[in-house]
Design brief:
alpha/beta, four-stranded parallel sheet, 4 helices
Length: 117
Amino acid sequence: MMILIAGPYRSGTGDDPAKMADNLARLEDIAVPLFRAGHLPMIGEWVALPLGNRAGSTGVSDPIYDEFAYPVADRLLQHCDAVLRLPGDSKGADEDVRLARERGLAVYFDLSEVPAA
């Protein structure tokens, strides 16, 4: 399955780049065991951040960031089979779960719930 990993990225960071990098690292840490279980992990920021950078974004507080951040996740979910929602407050991750459920996708809340491929 292609599984979108959803969890805090910007939430609770005060837009501190170091804290956002730590959050991204936590998302990426889960990607390795998902891959080893036979799945294709996906993180929205892996797509949104490079797109925003190429479009001229200077950071998460500018309108170019908003042009890509949430729309990328929405488009990715059109191709994903499931969402793995990691703990922590996150409006974006909550929206990913809402959209996944609306589209009939599986939603997991712990790595142990994800079946092996």
